[in-house]
Each structure stands twice: as C-alpha cells, then as structure tokens.
Amino acid sequence: MKRVLPFVLLLACSAPAFGQTVDSQGAKQLTDNLAHYFGKKPFDIGFVKVSVEGDAYKLAFDFKPLVEMIGKQDGFKFDFSPYALLTKPRSDGAWDVSANFTAQGSMEFNGDRGPQSAKMSFKGHRLVGIYDPKLAAFSSATSSLEGMTMTSQDPTQRTDLSTGAGTATIGATKGQNGGVDFTMGQTVADFNETVTIGSPGSGQKIPLTLKSPELSVDAKGKGVRTKPLLDLLAFAVANEDEAKLKANQAELKSHLLAALPLWERIDGAYNFKDVRVVSPTGNFGAAEVGIAFGMDGIARNGTINYAIKASGLSMPKNLIPSWAIALLPTDLDLDFGGANIDLDTMAKKAIEAFDLNKNPPLSQEFGDGLKKEFLANGPKIVIGHSTVKGGGAEIALEGDMTFPDGGKPDANVTIDVTGYDKIVAALQEAAKTDPQASQAFTGALAIKGFAKTLPDGRIEWVINARHDGSVTVNGAMLKGSDPVVEDNADPGATPGTAKKP
Known about the structure:
Layout: H1 4-11, H2 24-38, H3 41-44, E1 48-53, E2 56-61, H4 64-70, E3 77-80, E4 83-89, E5 95-111, E6 114-132, E7 137-145, E8 147-154, E9 157-163, E10 166-174, E11 180-197, E12 206-224, H5 226-238, H6 242-247, H7 249-259, E13 265-279, E14 282-296, E15 302-311, E16 331-341, H8 343-353, H9 364-376, E17 380-390, E18 393-402, E19 410-418, H10 420-430, H11 435-448, E20 452-453, E21 459-465, E22 471-473, E23 476-479
Antiparallel strand pairs: 1-2, 2-4, 3-5, 4-5, 5-6, 6-7, 6-8, 7-10, 8-9, 9-11, 10-11, 11-12, 12-13, 13-14, 14-15, 15-16, 16-17, 17-18, 18-19, 19-21, 20-21, 21-22, 22-23
C-alpha cells in the first residue's frame, strides 16, 4: 500500500507543471487535479492533504480519518502510520517526486474462515523520481528499502514474510504506436517466507519455509494506454451515481474502446538464487529458479506465455528409493502458453452490446454465442520446446492443443529422449533387488516399443489424440475412435443400437 497509493495518486497529476510558483493557489490546483480522478472524499475527510513545504508541495497521507469512516464494520480494525511525499514542479512541465519514511500497519477483520489479521513494517523507504504528465507515468524513478516484514494469519494458516534491503528502478518513454513503453527492475536481498499450516483444535502444525539470498524482478511493457485509463478513472468518479452512469453509458463505452488494447505487450520475470525449501520431510533446493510470463493486450491474434526454469535441483534422499536418486531431474526448462487468442472481437462486441438498464447487462444467450465464436476462431494451447535433464538423460517435448468443434480437443505432442538407454540400464540393475524398479523397468521397455529411433540416436514418440477419441503414436493406431452415439440413442444401450420408442 505504501508504494502503490502515492504512485497511483501522482498518475492523476495530469496538468503540466511548467516551473509554476509553489504557493497555496498551486496546492489547491493540485488538490483539484487529484480529486478529478479520485473524488473529493479523500480530501474532505483529511485522508490526503496537499500543502506547501518550501519550494515543493507536500502530499500527506493520514489513515486515521479513513479508519474512522470504515471502522463501524463488525470486527474490522485498521491502522497505518501516516507518511508524506514531496512533489516539485519543473520547467519542462514534469514533476520531481521524493519521499523518505518508515511505515507500519496492521489490519484485523472477520473473514469466511474466521478472524484474520495482518501486520506489516517497511523500514527506510526512499523514492526519487520524475513524473511526466504527458506520459501519465514516471519517466524515471529509483527507490530503495532497508527491509520489510509482513505477517498474516487466519484460523488455519500463518504466513511470516521478511526481506532485507532492496532497490528498484523504473523508466518510461512514449510508445511508437501510442501509449507508453516502460521498463522496471527490482532486487531484494534475504527473501524469507514461512507458511505454517494447522487445523483448528488439532494441535498439529506443518511449517514450510522458502529462502533465497536474492530475488530479482524485471518487467517491460509496450504501448500501455495510461492516458485513456486515467480518463476512464475520471469518468468513474464523475458518474458514481448509478442513475447518472446509466444515462451516460454511451460515453462509458467510448472510454472503454479508447482504452483498448490496454497494452500491446507486457513481459515480466522473477528469479530466485540459491533457493531452499525447508519442510518436515527434509530440504528441497535449487541453484536458481526463474518464472517468466508475457501477454499481449486485447488483440485479434494474441498470445500468452509462461516459462519455468530451474537448475541444480535437489530433494531429500529419504523420500525416494536409492536407485531412483540418479534418475531425478536436475534441470527444468518448461515453456507453455496460448496463441491465436482473439480477445479484441469479444471485447468490442461486449462493449457494443451491454446495456446497464437491463439485468443482467449482457444476456446469457449473448455470452454463450460469444464463447462459441471465440472457440471457432481457433485458440490454441501451446507447449513450447521444453526439456527435463537428469541422470545423463534429457527429455524434450513440444506440442499444441486445439478445439476444432468447440468441444473435445485435438492434441499433438512430440517427445524426444536422449540417453534413454541409460535410464533403462539403471532400472535393469535396480530391478535385481527392488520389485518397484522391476515394474518400472518393464514399463520402460514397453514404452520404448512404441518409439522411433532418430539418426542422431534420440528416440521419439509423436502422439496425436483426436477429438473423436482416437490416439496414434508414430502413426500407429493405439486407440480407435469412440463409438458414435446418436442424439436419440439410449445411453445404456449397446453402441450402434437406436433407442426404442
């Protein structure tokens, strides 16, 4: 909260500064600019206050009035220390922004699972940046944090999170096709999270701890529609009354269309170094773990991608038979996602069709038709080239899944293995003394019987599963099509026989 709120409020400072004189009139103008996007209520109750401090404006945040306003809810308690940031107009129309504070907070409320609470503490936060109203974004900013702690608890689970020092940078420029292009990087030291699970009254608690000396986060975006999104926010504030919103829904549709595609592309990645997971059964670990994601905006032919990479994997040896240790994966590189995703057509048709004067604004029939059309456009689930390495062997796979009739899918998967003979040899040796290994050895031989040997020595399985239920492996029929059941057939009757009148 301490980071997001100031950033979001400053996004509303859409009026250029142009080196204006810092005075009470300017403070009032800045207050009005902010209220345009967030309403007057935060200022009327004293939650946010703009004042002059030297050659800058001070934005002070005091949560006490907010707590008093919402504190009447049964079982709800909230407390967060006040803080402030300074913003100073520049001659080029941008704003210098800075902050330096320590903050603490707590919250209690009654949730679905009973009493819940959270406590947080942020130490030594510093922020320096330049906000550009023409971009509706920070053209540059750096921040640092000496450390933070956070604890959340409910009747079945407690989470304790802490980090050491961290730094972050952000930059933004005007996009070539409109919107804003941005980059963001963050590093955090000594990441430590412990989740303790325990059923009420059982007295049994199971702790799981994730540790990493370094966590890094990187993100970049292209064509983010910051300005239209701010306009949409201002419209929402100006039309809080339901009757007014219904009367102005044509304008709402115009704002929604202007905000499309929201962004052209956003990509991000998390990376953990020297990961350790401590559990009651032993310690799991990895030299490095990375999680990456990316997605297009509301596009006609959009894509979404996820990737998981891990190296130097290890696990407790007592959890598996000794003969299986050498076969454990040590490295993973998984890539999957979706392609040919037409959200643009769906979004525009939904915006055009909805009517706030009806309940629901979009009919069930319209929703069903939109879903059918979406599937008819051929969205695809994709497995990119992925590998699993370990025991001197490497398993690679890739494939896709489509929905030709809008129902059951067609799936195509290709699996290549390098070093399969090493796997079989290890199982054969272990089978001499271990019945489990003997079963695994038999299965490995049977699976190899379906494989095709490639010129470089790899063995391969090309698996095709069709929506009619048929399955082939390397062109050989493994399973035929499912029996066709006529619409008027008796589900309990013998396949191919019609239901008697």
